[in-house]
């Protein structure tokens, strides 16, 4: 009887909590992307992309006819300015019938103006707020960040999802919020993040370029010193960053074959790549040795080289190495001379190898040491597969004549 | 009024008019009692009493009446009938029926009439002859409806106890198989048999079964469910602590594990005890199919057991408390489908689950011709119309149907219905406390289960307490040549099942 009473009490206690923190799905505004810009009056402009569930129904239902009529978008763009991000959120909330829900915001875009002035003040919200995710991609854009969110989705239902998928293709830098903070806070490495830009999906068609065929592209990267943007790297230079940060998954290298060998071009794709950064401290002089190992597959050959000859393969390998070295050097020069920003994490590598020397000698003067650092780039390319045929089509044709 | 008539202590007087009068009063207004009066020779009055419909008229005719009348004639021609020792003479030399007993008490006479024996009273003899010529309409041995198999014997128990015992005996031709008979129910006088394998089953358990069975004093036992509830360990638990089956091969398999079976007359369902939670997840077919297939099917069963218990509550918890735990695109499509639904997820889920349970119950009760029509309407209303009317969301329909299917994958029906019932408190927990509530509910169930005992055997054994060697037959089913030992809990006296390991191997080369 006593036991029964206790059980009854426990059962009565359950509904007393009153479904604490219960929120129905229909009462949420699911934020899919956030953009932050600096206003001219010093306030922040927070722009959010919010999913509109009624427009997201299964294909073939009423929603498909809705998109045809136009005007009914699966996302809504809302924006508000505020002294802080939270302030802007509060004001935004007043305009919305449903509670803002940040857990599914997978993209944070920050405009150039804000980035140049420093990102730490705005990012604090995203570290502190319990709904935000550290596994959101952080992206920077030249111009206004809000414009990126206004994009119409073509493949996915929501454009933020498109950008996220694009990030995961491993073409550009993949920087999550947590990686960004890590680079910001760690010694001997400076933040770098992907740049997103609106690009026309076609080129060369002059008339339609003014049309709506725009798409968000991950192109290039934003380079920081501390939390301030110092400059942009273009696509080719970003490859160099990826190479030195050992983040490259695949890459296509095209080399020109000199005229005395017959001319033409060869394209090879790297299927396996690793980069080893080895700091060498000798007689107080610091040197960085960057060894790049890659295995390539030949994808295209329109030169006159016969790939069945091992000497030719060796020659192509040398050419590949030269090309890679050139490209990395380009990036390195820019980072060292133009930006003076150690986005490759050479400082961290030095600290890991020579912790005492780092603390004593380099830690405080790294900004002066880095631009003058001697970096020895040593690529080791291997051509492991030449595809289904050896000779190129041109050669076969000539032989048969 | 007393719930039964007091026993009649009088003796058979030998004066047929007196005895017959007493019996006629006892059986007055019972139109199925037949009093067949006849004469042995010319003078000797005799009466045969039996219940119409419970005796085989052919046997009565050829094995009792004919020999008796012929004997009467012969006696008449010789020297008349001598009365002393007549009953044993008849028993030993005249009546050709196989089972004949004698007795001197009126109560015995009444009892024997009621169980279907034919009673013979002869004027001047103060003993009655009880001749077994039972025979009544029986259902044939058919395929068990609730435990159908693809591979395995198709015989199922019937309502007749003797047939059932025969079905077991045919599978265990050893004197070690014991079948202890007893009668339960003051009015029903139901025959009950406790069966076990001597030398394998634990004596203490058998003694405990006897003790608990002897405690039963009730007016009638109509089904094994009566006995189950009267002898189980924790009467307030929602979990079944005694298994039942209508498959003779299943009960024999359990006897070989050292279990005790209880067969009850008038029901095809026999009880098996002691039993563990995991045994209720096993089907007899597991042991007939290839072991790899059986193992995979078993794992599937456990997976769907969890689904049957938790899927709706997890869905509710994720949708109303932990939206961040769903992948973005899944959340968006869930949000899209829920947009038109006016209820909170918990109400929606309860609505659907309760209608499903109602449909299931209706499906059992409805007369067969109507059943189909109703289930089609039910499926249409729930599946199609409710979604397009915006009362429930499409994902909820999917969840409910998967859960519905999942609960039927549990082989033991009583176990399945327990899980189905537990789903509702779990859903309420999920709706009020989210995943935290789900976890609390699961913990509560686990604690309760680990406290349960079935005739001294822990309900969660061999996992808790752990018997490593018994794990061969819990989540997986090892091949038969690997089942060297019987289960530790019930067959500790005689653990070895086979001689060593009997794994087939190719013959040695040149050997």
Automatic annotation (TrEMBL), chain B:
Gene Ontology CC: one annotated term: membrane
GO biological process, one term: spore germination
InterPro entries listed in its UniProt record: Spore_Ger, UPF0353/GerABKA_families
Keywords: Membrane, Transmembrane, Transmembrane helix
Residues spanning the membrane: 299-321, 380-410, 422-447
Regions of compositional bias (Basic residues) in chain numbering: 494-511
Region span, Disordered: 491-511
Pfam families reported for this sequence: GerA
Recorded family membership: Belongs to the GerABKA family.
Entry protein name: Spore germination protein
């Amino acid at each position: 009887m006593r036991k029964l009473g206790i059980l009854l009490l426990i059962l009565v206690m359950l509904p007393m909590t009153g479904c604490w923190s219960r929120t129905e799905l229909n009462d949420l505004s699911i934020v899919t992307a956030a953009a932050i810009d600096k206003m001219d009056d010093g306030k922040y402009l927070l722009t959010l992309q919010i999913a509109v569930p009624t427009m997201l129904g299964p294909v073939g239902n009423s929603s498909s006819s809705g998109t045809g009529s136009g005007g009914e978008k699966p996302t809504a763009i809302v924006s508000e300015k505020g002294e802080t991000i939270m302030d802007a959120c509060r004001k935004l909330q007043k305009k919305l019938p449903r509670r803002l829900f940040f857990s599914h915001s997978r993209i944070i875009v920050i405009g150039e103006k804000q980035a140049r002035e420093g990102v730490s003040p705005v990012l604090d919200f995203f570290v502190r707020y319990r709904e935000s995710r550290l596994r959101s991609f952080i992206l920077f854009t030249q111009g206004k960040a809000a414009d990126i969110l206004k994009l119409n989705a073509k493949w996915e239902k929501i454009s933020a999802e498109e950008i996220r998928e694009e990030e995961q293709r491993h073409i550009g830098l993949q920087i999550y919020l947590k990686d960004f903070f890590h680079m910001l806070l760690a010694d001997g490495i400076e933040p770098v993040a992907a740049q997103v830009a609106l690009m026309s999906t076609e080129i060369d068609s002059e008339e339609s370029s003014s049309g709506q065929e725009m798409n968000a592209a991950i192109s290039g990267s934003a380079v920081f010193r501390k939390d301030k943007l110092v400059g942009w790297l273009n696509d080719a230079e970003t490859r160099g960053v990826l190479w030195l940060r050992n983040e490259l998954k695949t890459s296509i290298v095209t080399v020109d074959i000199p005229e005395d060998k017959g001319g033409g071009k060869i394209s090879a794709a790297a299927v396996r790549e690793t980069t080893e950064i080895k700091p060498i401290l000798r007689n107080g002089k610091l040197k960085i040795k960057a060894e790049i190992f890659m295995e390539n597959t030949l994808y295209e050959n329109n030169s006159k080289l016969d790939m069945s000859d091992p000497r030719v393969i060796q020659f192509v390998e040398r050419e590949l190495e030269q090309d890679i070295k050139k490209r990395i050097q380009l990036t390195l020069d820019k980072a060292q001379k133009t930006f003076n920003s150690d986005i490759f994490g050479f400082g961290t590598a030095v600290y890991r190898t020579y912790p005492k020397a780092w603390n004593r000698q380099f830690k405080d003067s790294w900004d002066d040491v880095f631009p003058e650092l001697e970096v020895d780039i040593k690529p080791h390319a291997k051509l492991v597969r030449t595809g289904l045929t050896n000779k190129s089509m041109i050669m076969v044709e000539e032989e048969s004549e | 009024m007393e719930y039964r008539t007091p026993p009649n202590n009088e003796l058979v007087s030998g004066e047929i008019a007196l005895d017959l009068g007493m019996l006629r009063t006892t059986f007055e207004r019972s139109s199925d009692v037949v009093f067949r009066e006849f004469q042995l020779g010319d003078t000797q009055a005799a009466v045969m009493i039996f219940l119409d419909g419970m005796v085989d008229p052919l046997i009565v005719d050829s094995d009792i009446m004919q020999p008796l009348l012929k004997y009467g004639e012969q006696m008449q021609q010789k020297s008349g009938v001598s009365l002393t020792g007549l009953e044993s003479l008849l028993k030993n030399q005249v009546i050709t029926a196989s089972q004949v007993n004698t007795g001197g008490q009126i109560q015995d006479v009444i009892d024997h009439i009621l169980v279907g024996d034919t009673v013979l009273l002869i004027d001047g003899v103060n003993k009655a002859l009880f001749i077994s010529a039972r025979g009544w309409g029986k259902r044939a041995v058919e395929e068990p409806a609730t435990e159908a198999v693809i591979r395995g014997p198709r015989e199922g128990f019937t309502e007749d106890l003797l047939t059932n015992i025969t079905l077991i005996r045919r599978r265990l031709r050893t004197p070690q198989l014991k079948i202890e008979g007893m009668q339960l129910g003051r009015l029903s006088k139901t025959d009950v048999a406790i069966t076990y394998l001597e030398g394998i089953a634990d004596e203490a358990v058998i003694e405990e079964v006897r003790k608990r069975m002897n405690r039963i004093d009730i007016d009638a036992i109509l089904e094994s469910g009566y006995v189950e509830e009267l002898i189980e360990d924790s009467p307030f638990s929602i979990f079944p602590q005694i298994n039942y089956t209508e498959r003779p091969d299943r009960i024999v398999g359990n006897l070989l594990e050292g279990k005790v079976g209880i067969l009850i007359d008038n029901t095809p369902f026999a009880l098996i005890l002691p039993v563990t939670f995991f045994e209720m997840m096993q089907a007899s077919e597991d042991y007939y199919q290839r072991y790899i297939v059986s193992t995979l099917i078993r794992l599937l069963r456990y997976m769907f057991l969890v689904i049957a218990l938790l899927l709706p509550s997890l869905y509710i918890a994720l949708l109303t408390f932990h939206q961040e735990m769903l992948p973005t695109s899944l959340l968006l499509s869930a949000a899209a489908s829920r947009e038109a639904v006016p209820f909170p997820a918990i109400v929606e889920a309860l609505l659907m689950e309760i209608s499903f349970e109602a449909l299931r119950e209706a499906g059992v009760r409805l007369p067969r011709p109507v059943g189909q029509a109703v289930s089609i309407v039910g499926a249409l209303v729930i599946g199609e119309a409710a979604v397009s009317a915006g009362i429930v969301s499409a994902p909820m329909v999917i969840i409910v149907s998967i859960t519905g299917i999942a609960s039927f994958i549990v082989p033991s029906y009583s176990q399945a219905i327990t899980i189905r019932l537990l789903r509702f408190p779990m859903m309420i927990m999920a709706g009020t406390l989210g995943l935290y509530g789900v976890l609390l509910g699961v913990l509560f169930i686990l604690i309760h289960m680990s406290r349960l005992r079935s005739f001294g055997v822990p309900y969660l054994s061999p996992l808790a307490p752990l018997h490593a060697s018994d794990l061969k037959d819990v989540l997986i089913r090892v091949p038969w040549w690997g089942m060297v030992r019987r289960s530790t809990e019930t067959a500790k006296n005689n653990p070895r099942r086979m001689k060593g390991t009997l794994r087939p191997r190719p013959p040695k080369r040149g050997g």
